[in-house]
Input
Amino acid sequence: MGKQSPRQSLAFAVLTGVASIVPIGRAPRGVRAAVAGGSGVLAGGATYVALNRPDVIAAPREPVPAQQSAAIGAGVGALVVGVTVVGFVVDRAFEQALVRRNVPHPRLVLGAAAAVLSYGLDVIDRRFDTAD
Output
């Protein structure tokens, strides 16, 4: 993986924090379904393309047959949908836990925590990054 600069890590952490402020766990069911479904379709489609068309991603290998690529893509898409739905539930649970503890501005707290965690993990990742 390419090495990221501390500035890039900080920018990504800020974007992560801002995105975490959005109360997706409280969004209408249709919005949550669209986000989860869209994420699954995107992940499954990308998987299919990466396996079936390695030339698109400049991978030096033979393509996987279309039926196998489609099956794997569908599995990855379903997995992403499931993980996304669980993420919505966890988001809602964290927000409710902060509200029960009378934490002022729980979404802001979650956004700040996400930004700090994102930056910290990126710093750790850079520390162990090896020259490929």
Observations:
- The chain is about 75% helix and 0% strand.
- The chain has two domains: 28-101, 104-131.
- The two ends are 8 Å apart (CA to CA).
